[in-house]
User: What shape does this take?
Amino acid sequence: MNWSVRELEMKDVPILLDWYNNEDLHYIANAKKFKPYTLDQLTNYWREKLSRSNAKYYVILVDERVIGRVGLKKKGNSVEFSILIGDAALYSKGLGTEVTRYFISGALREPDVTSIYLGVRVDNLRAIRCYEKAGFQVTNEFYENHIKMYEMEIDKISSTDL
Ligand SMILES: CC(C)(COP(=O)(O)OP(=O)(O)OC[C@H]1O[C@@H](n2cnc3c(N)ncnc32)[C@H](O)[C@@H]1OP(=O)(O)O)[C@@H](O)C(=O)NCCC(=O)NCCS
Assistant: This one.
């Protein structure tokens, strides 16, 4: 697939709005209660997110069209990873795994980063399979809003085996 990435910019917020307001997509990816946004609310929310010094956000493009986003949030020597592809027609074609591998290898090249982790609903089997293919392993289970979640992690040492 012909994909690329670039840093997320405020001009992308209207595209994100469609994904935020898609209740089915929300409950695939989230344990938080669904709450629709207005464009103004989401614009303010992302203005604040893009001002954070410990986080970086990217959009994924396929054939120049924004179809998803990625987040990397630094916490000490770890990085929290998140990914969302908004166009369901692109699921299960290997894109998520390729993009995840790209970002984890980049993050693990940072000298001070020792591990990357994420949280995923245990019923999100497609995402779990994608993360496993990219090298993540389940390290913990927890509940968020009564939804069972896995914490998955990849560390610098085990990633050298990939
Ligand atoms: C999660 C996501 C990023 C994965 O990207 P993707 O491009 O669909 O993933 P890939 O195609 O690389 O890998 C998905 C794998 O899961 C498999 N899969 C799909 N549905 C499945 C299911 N119900 N059960 C088990 N495996 C499943 C696919 O066959 C594929 O595995 P394979 O290559 O061995 O055949 C993307 O689907 C997405 O953004 N989904 C909606 C939002 C979301 O869930 N975000 C993650 C929140 S933690």
